[in-house]
Amino acid sequence: MVNNCGLEGLRQLVINNISKTKTLIHIILPLILPEFLSYVSEYAYKEKEVNFVLTSHWDMSVYGEIISNMIALGNIQIRQLAYSGDVIAVVKDNEELILAPISNNLESLLCIRIRVPEIVNFFNQVFFPVYLGQSRPVS
User: Which of 25, 40, 24, 30 shows the shortest CA–CA distance to 7?
Assistant: First the structure.
């Protein structure tokens, strides 16, 4: 399903996905959205069996302390990209995929939400390993 969700709609969609995650959620953020970091930290603290992988181009002078606190929770992995990227991508429990290509107008952001297991699995096997290969873990 593709819709014009805008940045606010995307925020709600991602937060909703986080709250329904059972085992693993991988989030690629070309834009750092502090409310995502806050929500991920709170959820990771409450739900220790859920693992998070957050990949972005982190400005360590701004987010270094927050990232250290998140990593200390034990179920959050932070990965550093050399560049900021141009798509927000979320895969939850290998069941649902959200893609949102970044545009100049964030209020007209298009969100693609996929729940077809074969397509989600394909993206999980092809798309996310590219980002993992182009990033390094932050410790």
Answer: 30
pLDDT digits (tens, 9 = 90+) for 33-77: 888 899 999 999 999 999 999 999 999 999 999 999 999 999 999
* Distance in angstroms between the alpha carbons of the first and the last residue of the chain: 37
Which 3-state string (H, E, C) describes the chain?
A: CEEECHHHHHHHHHHHHHHCCCCEEEEEECCCCHHHHHHHHHHHHHCCCCEEEEEECCCHHHHHHHHHHHHHCCCEEEEEECCCCCEEEEEECCCEEEEEECCCCHHHCEEEEECCHHHHHHHHHHHHHHHHHCEEEEC
Q: Which residue range(s) make up the domain with 113?
A: 2-138
Query: pTM for the whole thing?
Result: 0.91
**Domain count within the chain:** 1
Q: Are residues 27 and 36 in contact, defined by beta-carbon separation less than 8 angstroms?
A: yes
Could you tell me the CATH number of the domain that includes residue 69? 3.30.870.10
Q: Is the dihedral of CA 69, 75, 81, 86 positive or negative?
A: negative
